[in-house]
Amino acid sequence: MSDALLQIRSCCQAFPKADGEDLLVLDDINLTLKDGEIVGLLGRSGSGKSTLLRLIAGLARPVSGSVIYRGQPVIGPAPGIAMVFQSFALFPWLTVLENVELGLEALGLPEAEIRRRALAGIDLIGLDGYESAYPRELSGGMRQRVGFARALVVHPNILLMDEPFSALDVLTAETLRTDFLDLWIEGKLPIKGVLLVTHNIEEAVLMCDRILVFSRNPGHIIEEIKVDLPHPRSRVEPAFRDLVERIYVALTARQAPAPRAAPDRFAGMGIEMVLPRVSANALAGLIEALAGAPYNGEADLPVIASTLQMEVDDLFPIAEALQLLRFAEVEGGDIKLTDAGKQFAESGVDDRKKLFQRQLLAYVPLAAHIRRVLQDRAQHEAPKRRFVDELEDHMAEEAAEGTLRCVVAWARFAEAFAYDDRSETFSLDNPS
């Protein structure tokens, strides 16, 4: 493709696990970035989006497949590809001007040219007058503008943006996003294409020409969505809302199978399932929100996400946990309380705990397994290591730790079993 800036062909990436096997994090990724495009990589945390950016930037090599930039394979950091990070990544002991000049110094440009381009970049992103300020003197939005300036002054062909607005408050993010789009549309940015990693669905629809929707475990592209909306785009336009709904449907259809598809067992569920890090309070809060007006037990995910001001990474784990516990069904971009969910919403504290314990032991095999082990032991106790070792046969160490912490939190709410963090011991007060 003559107009292709970047081509990813059948890329896979894996990392070694504690047991010596590899954990596949990206599987068969294929994408193209053309001249004049902003392409969004949209998905939950853990879907490999940032890992893919590292492959494109030449900071890592795929285990298979290829990354082709302007007709040449990427085998190391590629001139012409720059990145903006979520965490600003500024050097605190350098001024704004010195931070922006860093990338130009690496190019070996004359000092006068470095200063000219750095000052022009600072002016372009709206920080004229702050050249001598240090990062500690700037707000989060201003620091991110410095990050943009530092990336842009090297005049890259491709700008990689790794959730560049997610660390900012809502109003600051909106301002910076709008300013970037205005500069892009007016042709004032010295770049030819953008890859934007995000988990914010509305942000992707606002900014991108195409959106690649990623699923997890391993990360792979499940749908490509073209955004044929003129700029500036409005969140309240029906066509905009239709695209948001379509993305929610894509994510829920592939990542959260409906319980009725497997009435006796959550699809693919076993003690090896990585559990979402969601508190019982968050689960109860969403049940109560769904049970009340105006939803009365059923809601579109985009609507309730907007009402509760929650993004994908906030809402989806709660919705998936409710489905796992059979308190709700998630399908086609909608969430609906089950009879158990409605009963939970109407119950008092003690009855909620009893109901939660019933659902937990019936539908979370790890919880039932821990309780069964405790019941079978004479002292009704077991060390944490015993269960960690089991989990690490199926998942990475970090995932095993997170999964165990999740089941402990749920079990405490349900009074299903106890855990002492100091002695790292599980126990059962009531073994019957």
Describe the structure.
With 432 residues, the protein is of the alpha/beta class. The chain folds into 3 domains: 4-251, 3-Layer(aba) Sandwich (Rossmann fold); 261-268 and 275-345, Orthogonal Bundle (Arc Repressor Mutant, subunit A), CATH 1.10.10.10; 352-427, no CATH class. It has helices spanning 49-57, 96-106, 111-124, 140-152, 170-185, 201-207, 238-255, 280-291, 301-308, 312-324, 339-346, 349-363, 365-376, 384-392, 397-414; strands at 4-16, 22-34, 38-42, 64-69, 72-73, 81-84, 158-162, 193-198, 210-215, 220-226, 298-300, 328-331, 334-337, 381-383, 418-420, 425-427. Strands 6-7-8-3-9-10 form a 6-stranded mixed β-sheet, sandwiched between helices. Helix 2 (96-106) runs parallel beside helix 4, helix 8 packs across helix 10 and helix 11 runs antiparallel to helix 12.
